[in-house]
Structure formats: C-alpha cells, structure tokens
Design a protein that fits this description.
It is a single chain. With 292 residues, this protein is of the alpha/beta class. It has 14 helices and 10 strands. Strands 1-2-3-5-6-7-8-10 form an 8-stranded parallel beta barrel, surrounded by 6 helices. The radius of gyration is 18 Å and the shape is globular. The model has no long low-confidence stretch (mean pLDDT 94).
Length: 292
C-alpha cells in the first residue's frame, strides 16, 4: 500500500450520501491517494467505507478514526477484515479514543483511555474470525498525540493518525516512534489570502479542539500557553494549526510535514466564506488547485 501520494480528508457528517460519492470520485480522478473521514455521532464508519470503496476503483479509504468506545474489539476487527477481504490493499483501520465531551452525549464513561486502548488492541488481535480471511489484515493505526499513546501505537500497530498538528509536532512524533512506523497527518487548508477572513473562519474550526485537554497539553509542548488559547486562539496559534494563503504557501506547509517525517499527508479543504452549511462542505476549488 503506497501512501506517499497526498490524500484528502472530509468531514462527511456534513455531507449527503450523493455528495460523499461525488467528493470521493472527484478526489480519485484528481489523483489523491487516499480518502479519510472521522466517526462522530452519525453514520457507521464501516458502512460508509464500503459505500465509498464500492463506488471507486483505486483510492485507499481510511477511518480517521473509528471510535473504540462504540464497539467491541471483535466487532471492530471483524469489520476491518471484511473490508480488507473485499477491497484488498484499499482499507486502513484507523482507531482512536475520541473525546470525553463527545462520549458524554452517548452516555459512555470516558476513563483511563490509555489502559482501555492497550487492552482493546490485545483483544482485537486475538478476536476470532470464521469467514474467509483477507490476504492480509488491514493496517491498524491509532490516533495519538501524547508520548504514552504514541509509544503504544508504535509498539502494537502500524503507526499513528494525528490531526491538527504542526510540522514541528510531526518531527517530534517521528523521533518518538522511529523510522519505520506510519505517520498519517491531517492538515486543514484554506485557499484564502485575506488574513482577517482566513483567521476568522479558522477560529470557528479550531474552537472545539481548544476545549480538549489532550490538544492543549500537546500544544503547550510547542510553547503555546493560555494567552494563545484565549478568545478563539491567537494569530500565532491559528496560523500554526490551519494552513491558509495561496497555493504555493499551502504546498509549502504540506511539504514541511513530509520533510519532518510524515509518511502521508491528507488535506481537509475548508472555506472562508458562505453560510454555516456551505462552509461545512469541502472546498472543491482548493481540492482541485492542490491536487497531487
């Protein structure tokens, strides 16, 4: 599975099923190597992955991420193996512990995430599976930012899928997990040259993440502090988390991740203008301009 070609990442919860297929087929025609999407409070990620894989022919599909609290390890591994058998070398099983505020809406108690993930991975590996097995199990990667979860990802899986990180963080992750493991980075991009427009839209995007302790802890290691987290995020923080500007400037940020050690970079193309509904949809103009 070759992941050197840049990928795309879409927040599919904001899209209808026909819009998702249009986006997937467009990304494939433009030469993107992979399409990633998250699991939130809506669609089942494996049903959605099958829907996309069945409508495309080459693009790799990855969950970024499937929530470990919402299904048993055997169910997670069974779904992954099913897709790996049906679509060889085209599915990546990205899993993660999600976030406490989101899980509270589901009535799920979010405790000891590291211990939970360690036990979960062990149960996935030993899960029985009586159907015909794929030629190879799907690659498993774990969403990780902090040292202990990164160590677990490196020792027990193919690598990690970090989102909203800087090239400096990519370099630190590479140093932490070694040269062989995958680092599949998500980078939010905005094809907008006006600084005020770009930063105003970016603050709306990162607001959720500035309320999550693990993201704040990770950002503090880069020298950001409470003053950067206040009022929607300082200009310095916004510019670090969201790559905005013209095409060359954005390509420079993507390349910086690769130079820092990323195995694969996927871009989330967001809009700076439009209604809330319009801004939730991928910016196809940027997808086309930045196509590999």
């Amino acid at each position: 599975m070759n992941l050197r070609t840049m990928g795309s990442y879409a927040v599919t919860e904001s899209m209808t099923a026909p819009q998702i297929l249009d986006f997937a087929t467009t990304a494939e025609k433009l030469g993107y190597g992979a399409l990633w999407f998250p699991e939130a409070l809506g669609r089942d990620p494996f049903a959605l992955a099958a829907y996309i894989l069945g409508a495309t022919s080459e693009i790799v599909v990855g969950t970024g991420i499937a929530n470990v609290w919402k299904r048993e390890p055997s169910a997670m591994m069974g779904a992954g193996r099913t897709l790996a058998e049906m679509y060889p070398d085209r599915f990546i099983l990205g899993i993660g512990i999600s976030h406490g505020p989101m899980l509270s809406q589901l009535g799920i108690k979010y405790t000891k995430p590291l211990s939970f993930m360690r036990d979960y991975l062990a149960k996935m590996k030993s899960a029985p599976y009586s159907a015909p097995r794929p030629a190879a199990d799907p690659p498993i990667i774990v969403a990780a930012l902090l040292p202990k979860m990164l160590q677990l990802a490196a020792s027990e899986t193919q690598g990690t899928f970090p989102v909203y990180i800087t090239p400096e963080q990519t370099a630190r992750i590479r140093a932490a997990i070694g040269p062989e493991k995958w680092i599949c980075v998500q980078q939010v991009v905005m094809l907008e040259r006006d600084a005020d427009k770009a930063r105003r839209a970016a603050r709306a995007i990162i607001a959720f993440y500035l309320g999550l302790p693990n993201y704040l802890q990770s950002l503090r290691t880069l020298g950001f502090n409470d003053s950067d987290f206040a009022s929607g995020g300082s200009d310095r923080l916004v510019d670090a988390m969201i790559a905005w500007g013209d095409e060359p400037k954005i390509r420079d940020r993507i390349e910086a991740h690769y130079k820092a050690g990323a195995t694969h970079v996927s871009i989330t193309c967001v809009r700076s203008e439009g209604s809330a509904r319009e801004r939730a949809l991928p910016d196809v103009r940027a997808l086309e301009a930045l196509a590999p």
